[in-house]
Amino acid sequence: MFRTVSNFVFILLLGVVFATRANAYGIGLSSGMAAEKWNVEAEDQNARTFRHRESRDVVHVGFIMDSCLSNKKSTNYRLVGGFETSEAHGHNFSMSGAYVTHTFGFLMLWRDGIRLWAGPQWKLSYYNTMWNDRHEGYVGHLLGMGWGGVLGANFNFAKDFTMSFTGGTRGMSQWGGYHPSTNSNDETHVDAGTDGVFLDVSLVFRLGERGE
Predict the structure, then answer these.
(1) How far, in Å, CA of 63 to CA of 151, rounded?
(2) Where are the domains of the chain?
(3) pLDDT for the residue 117
(4) Which residue from 76, 86, 90, 187 could staple onto 105, CB 3.0 to 4.6 Å apart?
């Protein structure tokens, strides 16, 4: 687990260094939600395998850095990292943890302070807090990695501020396991594939970038 967390922090810091090396960039806050479909394969302590499909709602909030928000530069790099919660419909098994996304954007249209862009996104998530609708806790972890496509719109409504909206689709793979906190021997291993859609909104303060 320590190695997984260390790798997560390393990837996040690498993105920060990459973004801040730009001549101009923006920093701010981002929040959003996603609707996901999970194909889950779980194996319990008796080696019995269970498969099911479930719907999940994800809510997240984090910090954002972007290398280009308001001018005609052909590309931009966006880093977002923070905290998210995932809750399943029906049995209400919830999870929370950290996430980070790396997005590489390509300019599609720039006009009158509006920048439209699109590109690929890579996401890494790590859930290590789990509970059910009866507030019973579980001990475990779930590591997720996946790719998606993003469409973004930046509205530069003030001298130094940008309101940015992004949306897209994303597929991920999840690996891990968990057990009730009251029984350390009742381990369930999880292998899941997910697909879904997401929508984020960000408020970003531009540093050294005044638009064109």
Answers:
(1) 19
(2) 2-207
(3) 97
(4) 76
pLDDT, tens digit, 9 for 90 and up, residues 189-206: 999 999 999 999 999 999
pLDDT digits (tens, 9 = 90+) for 82-97: 999 999 987 778 999 9
Q: What is the DSSP string of 51-96?
A: EEEEEEEEEEEEEEEES-SSS--SEEEEEEEEEEEEEETTT--EEE
Q: What is the pLDDT of residues 152-161, one digit of tens each?
A: 999 998 788 9
Distance CA 99, CA 30 (A): 12
Cα four-point dihedral sign 15, 21, 22, 26: positive
- Class for the domain spanning 2-207: mainly beta
Strands 137-155 and 94-111: unpaired
User: What is the amino acid identity at position 175?
Assistant: W
The 8 Å CB, 24+ separation contacts for 158-161 are: 159/210, 160/205, 160/206, 160/210, 161/203, 161/204, 161/205, 161/206
Q: Which two tokens stand for residue 122?
A: 């890579």
Return the residue matching tokens 């954007």. Answer: 105
User: To the nearest whole number, what is the mean pLDDT of the chain?
Assistant: 86
